[in-house]
Amino acid sequence: MRRALVTGITGQTGSYLAELLAAHGWEVHGAVRTAGETAPTGAPTLHVADLARPDEIATVIDRVRPDAVFHLGGLTSVAESWTDPAAYAVTIGGSTASILATARRLGDAGHEVRVVNASSAEVFGRAAEQPQTASTPIAPVTPYGAAKALGHRLVKMYRETGVPAANGILFNHESPRRPLAFVTRKITHGVALIAAGRAPSITLGNLDARRDWGWAPDYAEALRLAVDAPGDYIIATGVSHSVRDFVAAAFAAVGIDDWQQLVLQDPRFMRPNDAPEQRGDPAATEAALSWRRTVDFEGMVAAMVAADLAALADRA
Ligand SMILES: C[C@H]1O[C@H](OP(=O)(O)OP(=O)(O)OC[C@H]2O[C@@H](n3cnc4c(=O)[nH]c(N)nc43)[C@H](O)[C@@H]2O)[C@@H](O)[C@@H](O)C1=O
Asked: Of the candidates 50, 42, 5, 49, which has an alpha carbon nearest to the alpha carbon of residue 24?
């Protein structure tokens, strides 16, 4: 039985990945920031490691001696990274360095540790080329992107020196488990409240930004497959939509076509250097990992709205 250590196991994608790994026969361990966090299905053993103190995750790896570390933990908000860039640099860049150095040390001592790192579309910044591929220049324009770029480069250099490590370059990925701070869940939750007559409107920022939104469980599956094929993988759908398109699709799912007056805009939700479009080319990943997404944009929006409507009905 192979043993996995998943950082970020209580987050959206980490929880799906833990379930998938358990279903594929892995013994799953999770790293959590504080004691008392709840394990998702299939993760019997949790270990406390605050990624803001990168030595703590090294200690946990030494104790667990996993066959693979899936590194999904760390801070995740591009907007918030402008207010605390140092925390982003350390919890993302520092933790990745610590994991790779530990994997190398254990490997040198005869215990191979594979690493799959959650890199991000944000490493490409305001990319000059559409869509982005694994060869698109790394040119982040946000503190979050810069921190992810550090982790991304470290994975490449440790791989070149013998650590079996992969970057999953994750474009935006969504599900009913997405926290409300992200635009998709904010929209589907807001639309459900409006449909239930419990909120008058939704307030958003930049409606013109285009993102390549995929289904989080599909992306967890790509990370699982990457563990046995060290490399850099674009995990995306190849299709981008604007925030406005997402709003329209979410309202359409509850039968509201005339939504313009239900959506307000506030500069509070605008960000510096918001990339106008991020869109990934998944072709190389599909070929190398025999991976294919199973849910398209409309299916994803409909599933998220349905889950938010059901949660409201349960609470009513
Ligand atoms: C790849 C990347 O994906 C995610 O980061 P994100 O793209 O920043 O995600 P988001 O849902 O916060 O923003 C998407 C777009 O939507 C725009 N937008 C408009 N109005 C609001 C609004 O009201 N709230 C938010 N949050 N965004 C808004 C916002 O300006 C941006 O253009 C993380 O998983 C991250 O960890 C990661 O790696």
From this structure: 42
What single-letter amino acid sits at 196?
Answer: A
* Per-residue pLDDT, 126: 97
The rounded Å distance from CA 312 to ligand 1 centre is 24
CATH annotation of 180-211+242-277+295-315:
3.90.25.10
pLDDT band at residue 316 under the 50/70/90 scheme: confident
**For position 113, what pLDDT does the model report?**
98
Q: Where are the domains of the chain?
A: 3-173+212-235, 180-211+242-277+295-315
Can you state the percent helix, strand and coil of the chain, rounding each to 5? 45, 15, 40
Task: State residue 144's pLDDT score.
Answer: 98
Per-residue pLDDT band for 35 (boundaries 50, 70, 90) equals confident
Catalytic member of 119, 120, 175, 240: 120
Is the CATH number 3.10.310.10 carried by domain 3-173+212-235?
no
Question: How remote is the CA of residue 3 from the centroid of ligand 1, in Å?
Answer: 33
Q: Which numbered atom of ligand 1 lies nearest the CA of 172?
A: 3
Quick check: pTM over 0.90? yes
Q: How many CB atoms lie within 10 A of CB 25?
A: 8
